Amino acid sequence: MCSQNRNSKKNEPTEWTPLFDFDETKQTIAENQQSAKQQPALQTVPQQPLSITELTFRLKELIELNFVNIEVVGQISNLMQPRSGHIYLTLKDEESQLPAVIWKSTVSKFHFKIKDGMEVICRGRLDVYPPQGKYQMIVSGLEPKGIGSLELAFRQLHDKLAALGYFEPYRKKPLPRVIQNVALITSPSGAAIRDFLQVLGRRTKRVNVLIIPVRVQGDGAALEIAEAIQTVHRIALRQPIDCIVVTRGGGSREDLWAFNEEILVRSIVASKIPIVSGVGHEIDVTLCDLAADVRALTPSEAAERIAPEDDELVKNLLQIQRQLDDMLEKQFRFCRDRLAFLEKQSALVLPERIIENRRRAVDLFEERLERSVDSWMQTAVQKFRNTAARLEALSPLAVLARGYSLTETEIGHQIQNINEVKIGNHIQTRLSNGVLKSVVTDIVAETK
After folding, report:
1. Fewer C-beta within 10 Å: the chain N or C terminus?
2. Are 113 and 160 in contact (CB under 8 A)?
3. How far is it, in rounded angstroms, from Cα 197 to Cα 208?
4. 339 inside domain
5. What is the total count of domains within the chain?
6. Both 69 and 118 in a single domain?
7. Final residue of a domain: which of 273, 292, 308?
8. Is there a contact between 19 and 62 (Cβ–Cβ < 8 Å)?
9. pLDDT recorded at residue 107
């Protein structure tokens, strides 16, 4: 499907010129036949045959002159993008296909990513490639069917950055409770800076504003704003900056597109200083708003979010003062009642009674301890005596006292068998009251 663009150049046709008028052709043929019947036959001059190159270049001239600015609706297939940066694709519908190419210089102007299967509206011109005798479309503009190109680019980039967690609440930094120094990144000539400063001036005189002038729309504006955020961080090394405000007034999606570019969103996420975004009107939503730590609906609301009114602060301080007075009064009454209660306690009225009572208790504990020690000693002595008696009964010395003796070798080993000694060995005999030393002169074995 194709149609002529109404906004064509002066040297281009404003409406379609048919290549062949079939009604006119039929009429001409009929007239020629009628004339042939009335006139004698003329000798026909044979037409010189055309070469393939001549025919191809005639078709090329015919096609390229008549199909200069067209729009085609179709589905993308066979998408290829080699290292050259150009994009080659095929546009197709249910019955036909049209090869197309998008040169690298045009590709760089698209904000969204082109994919197979997309239904698109392509604008451009037809071109014939003579070596192969094929025609193709040179695409100069492309947008998704049923959705604008910027809307599609917004959705694609939103999904990509959302998957990285850039819009999650957990990574957003809270604003300081007291803000005194603000870096304002905006256009110095726009309405946003005027609205912001007017609202801020009405609410408080305590906030210092450092203005960082930037472009807020057009090519390169997003990079300029991102670099301004980095500049504020370098300034913060020398002087305190409590927060950054990025703002601009309302506009179309094209006007606000700088605040939807990835380089700016990444700069906002990487900022160590809290960032307030106040871009456009209430209905405008940009990726900058979603990534910022605080989103304000307008530049005026951005001023309200960072600076409570001085009168409101005075009211809050008075309320806090009343609360402190009430707390001190309650604490004073509690201490006074507590003191009155303690004054009536016997420990404070007659403290010597407490000492006497403690003294009696110590005496009782001393008596109990002495009785316990005596009882324990008696039991221990009796156990010792019983144990000594049992040991005495088991002692070998007690056996010797009854007339027995114990024979040992010279070094004290007990001799229990005659085979353990030889004639001439020195032995000793232990009695109950001493030891006898002797030499073995004879060994007599006992016969059974």
Report:
1. C
2. no
3. 11
4. no
5. 3
6. yes
7. 308
8. yes
9. 79
In this structure, what CATH number is given to the domain that contains residue 175? Answer: 3.40.50.2300
CB 265 within 8 A of CB 223: no
The per-residue pLDDT for range 354-397, each reduced to its tens digit, is: 788 888 888 888 888 988 888 899 888 888 888 887 887 776 66
What is the Cα–Cα distance from 106 to 137, expressed in whole angstroms? Answer: 13
pLDDT tens digits, one per residue of 123-161:
888 888 888 878 888 888 887 776 666 677 778 888 888
In a domain, 179, yes or no: yes
Q: Mean pLDDT across the stretch 28-42?
A: 50
In 3D, which of 436, 433, 437 has the Cα closest to residue 397?
A: 433
Backbone region of residue 353 per phi and psi (left: phi > 0; alpha: psi in -120 to 50; beta: other values): alpha
How many whole angstroms separate alpha carbon 405 and alpha carbon 399? 8
Contact 138, 127 (CB under 8 A): yes
Q: Which pair of structure tokens corresponds to residue 264?
A: 């700016």
Same domain? 175 vs 303: yes
Mean pLDDT of 60-68: 81
In a domain, 81, yes or no: yes
Q: Specify whether 137 is located in the same domain as 188.
A: no
pTM over 0.85: no
Q: Percent of the chain scored above 90 by pLDDT?
A: 19
What values do phi and psi take at 360, rounded to 5?
Answer: -60, -40
pLDDT tens digits for range 219-272: 899 999 999 999 999 999 999 999 999 999 888 778 888 998 899 999 999 999
Q: How far apart are CA 235 and CA 230, in angstroms?
A: 9
d(CA 300, CA 193): 9
- What are the phi and psi torsion angles at 116 (to 5°)? -60, 145
The answer to whether residue 158 sits within a structural domain is no
Alpha-carbon span 277 to 225, nearest angstrom: 12
Q: Are residues 89 and 191 in the same domain?
A: no
- Rounded to whole angstroms, the Cα distance separating 354 from 24 reads 135
Over 50: is that where the pLDDT of 81 sits? yes
pLDDT in tens, 166-176: 889 899 999 98
User: Do 217 and 300 fall into the same domain?
Assistant: yes
Q: For residue 286, what are the domain limits?
A: 171-308
Residues 75, 211, single domain; the answer is no
Pair (204, 97) in one structural domain:
no
Distances in Å between the Cα of 154 and the Cα atoms of 64, 162, 239, 270 are 35, 12, 37, 21
- The Cα–Cα gap between 7 and 15 comes to 11
Q: Are residues 236 and 111 in the same domain?
A: no
Among 308, 341, 359, residue at a domain's last position: 308
Q: Which amino acid is at 96?
A: S
